[in-house]
Give the backbone structure.
Amino acid sequence: MDLKDLKDYLQEKTAIQVSLKGNIFGGLSEDQVEMIAQKVARLRIKDPWKGPLSEKTLEGEVAYEQERINDREWKLFGILYEGVLYQELLRDFILEGKLNDRNCTILLTNQLIATRDQDDLRYHIRTSLYGFPHILSIPGFVSAPAKPREFYVKRQMGIPVQILKEEYKGRFLDHGDSRTTEVLKGYVMQALFFQLTGDPFCEDQDCRLFNSHWQEEMLHAQLDGKYEFCPRHEAILDKIKS
Ligand SMILES: [Zn+2]
């Protein structure tokens, strides 16, 4: 992920001043880290039907969170957190007093977040959660949008994932994928549009604001759409810029 590239892109597209603030956990006291770790540990989703807070937090889980917060290079993923509550926690305890509607605060995380779907009432992994602050989950871009349908069919037939990954290479984003920064550009723009207009999405599959549910849709909209933004959104961007 190239944050400098992301920053330059946003600035160029919008003429809004962008600054990289670094790790939000940096500068917390030991007591604060412990308090945050306690709270984050309670946001784990162990059952996608039930959500978090249903079970007692184990001591080991709190210790894990504490270690994770203290280690900037921590890269493990796999644990799922309740997105809306995670957002609330960041707002109330870490970014307290730093958020306002004159600034668009976008947090990139290497954690997986999930929110409950209104239709099937089950928790689903998300790429992004817009609000205060906006959250973009890097592993979410790998896990949330669906891979080609045949991928799952073949996996059920028992073909090993490694072989399938090779067969479908390029058609979905993988961990450490060199296209990640390019994909993120569209999503930071979605966050900005959410904040400015209340609507982060577009119906146009070629527009970077398209709300993709499939990996191939996401890669198309972000990497090889007809244009970067549809005429309607391009016009809004022009207005923002001027
Ligand atoms: Zn559009």
